[in-house]
Amino acid sequence: MDNNTNSKIWISPLISDGMVLQREAKVSFWGKAVPKENLKLTFLDNEYSTLVKEDGSWELVLNDLKPGGPFIIKIYCAGEEKIVQDVYVGDVWVLAGQSNMQIPIARTLDLFEEEVKDANCPEIRQYTVPMVYDFNGPIDEVGGGSWVPVTPETINSFSAIGYFFSKKIYDKYKIPIGLLFTAIGGTPAEAWISEDTITRFDRFNEIVQKCKQDSYVKDVQKKENEYNNQWYSEIYQADEGLHDKVAPWYSDECNDKDWRTIELPASFRGTELETIRGGVVWLRKEIEIPEHMAGKEGKLVLGTVIDADDTYINGVQIGNTGYLYPPRRYKIPEGLLKAGKNVITVRTIITGNIGGFVTDMPYFVKVGNEQIPVSGIWKYKVGAITKPQNPSTFFQNMPSGVYNGMIYPLRNYTIRGVLWYQGESNTGNPDDYKDLFKAVISDWRRLWKQDDLPFYYVQLANYCPWRLENEVSGWAQVREAQRQVMELPNTGMAVIIDVGMYNDLHPWDKKSVGGRLALWALNSIHGEDNVPSGPIYNRMTIENNTVRLYFDYIGGGLTLKGDKLETFEISGDDGVFYPADAKISGDNVLVSCKKVSNPKRVRYAWANNPERANLYNKEGLPASPFITHTQDL
Predict the structure, then answer these.
(1) Using an 8 Å Cβ cutoff, are 522 and 533 in contact?
(2) If residue 30 lies in a helix (H) or strand (E), which one and from where to where?
(3) What CA–CA distances, in Å, run from 266 to 259, 263, 345, 609, 623?
(4) What is the enclosing helix (H) or strand (E) of 319?
(5) Does residue 518 sit in helix, strand or coil?
(6) Which of 377, 406, 571, 572 lies most in the core, judged by the most C-beta atoms within 10 Å?
(7) How far apart are CA 54 and CA 419, in angstroms?
(8) 332 closest CA partner among 305, 359, 360, 370
(9) How far is the C-alpha of 360 from the C-alpha of 467, rounded, in Å?
(10) pLDDT tens, 500-540?
(11) In sequence order, what are the residues at sequence separation of 6 or more whose Cβ sits closer than 8 angstroms to the Cβ of residue 448?
């Protein structure tokens, strides 16, 4: 199917081969054609027609389609025909938010490689909306994209949460599922809000006006590109390891006898390397490869490196990663490993953080089913020291940009609902997150003209690098805002503080996340009588020196994992929170502390990384973190 400029019929790229149409709803088809000509569309032996408007636009609405497929759509106008093939009818969901929704199956293979390697579910499809931002107003149409089915060849690029959500539902009901994938890493909530709405928040008005000036955006991008190119050029030129006159430090000929030692994985914090916030640290490790593994293809699993790396084995570069977050999983080509001594070299580029190898991650060479650890004593030498790299401006993160470029163009495509995972980028300024998130939901419901559009979202996972907790927890504040947003109708929240990773902003277990989102859809969309959530705090009463807490979604009853409830805290008139004794009493939790005789407030799991939190319902779903408020009495 072609939308070339000579065509008499133009249709949105969304209306293309492999599309999934929303079942049991009003479904629009739209596009451009020859003005005042009659346009016909045939689908399932039914014919629909309309007169193309004077401006060339046309729209047809089909009602109450039943799930199934594959079908064919034919569109006729002015003697021309367009055919859209492999069409299914089912449920369509928008996948939105930031990187944790964006993370593909490829980043979850440490956990799910065997489960997904033969994935073949072509009735689950994903349409990746091109990453576009615009500050001068909404864009009318998406600029490209295609519908891609789940197959063994495509599965690794699918949104992991989107796939696991869809698979849980599809396996049960066999209804096709289409995913409109819009998530962009790093985007704060304000990027997904319309300009009319975001300008009600005074703190964004200045940047909104700046971004409307194309010259401002282009000038910032030009200057930052020049700066970054210069920074990397200088660090390359200064790196002694690359320009050693005897041998570069990644080569077999490198003499590392005078290098110092460090035990990895570990942070460089507390070592002489801590002060390097811009520069290069070279790391080398010798490992012994047995004869039967020599020459075979393998994989180097190198946890996560801060910040960037170029990685070599026996002088041959096998991979590199340009920034902090991705796990390092590098293929070792056939013929590179040799029997006996082999040398792994990691050129670690530090751009602004304290460097290191992230702890509690896997570090090994794998050949077949055998692993050789690479943790332990490494040698190191500083290659270059420079200034930290200045942070870059990511304009996709600016207010309203991706709303205009990626959400508004989808407005005519009928959807079942939204799946949202976002909030990490608002933890540094969490005070207005509740209002921002509510604005996202109301804006999108207004855009799709559905006041009760289902909006299911993920509460932030547990995360705290090196377990270095801040005194004030922005993560806890955002989680509390997310809990409170459940007061909006037809919303649902997946609590995942038990499947996060303190050492990885992008926890690998996306199956649990997708599955918990699916519980809401199974309950509200498919009418199942399930318990879609763990306990959600509702209200409290004060009985002498004890606080009684009441919860929704207790399911079969409250329970705990472990010997006693953890992470409950209580405060009195002074507002100081103390660790509290907490116990389950029927459907309630009783909280007290000998230091607090006149309790006022209670909080639970109030930390960036509340990994000891252990209140659940008997369905095995964790309770949401919360803090009580005076109006809860």
Answers:
(1) no
(2) strand 26-33
(3) 18, 7, 17, 19, 32
(4) strand 316-321
(5) helix
(6) 406
(7) 38
(8) 370
(9) 11
(10) 999 999 999 999 999 999 999 999 999 999 999 999 999 99
(11) 411, 414, 415
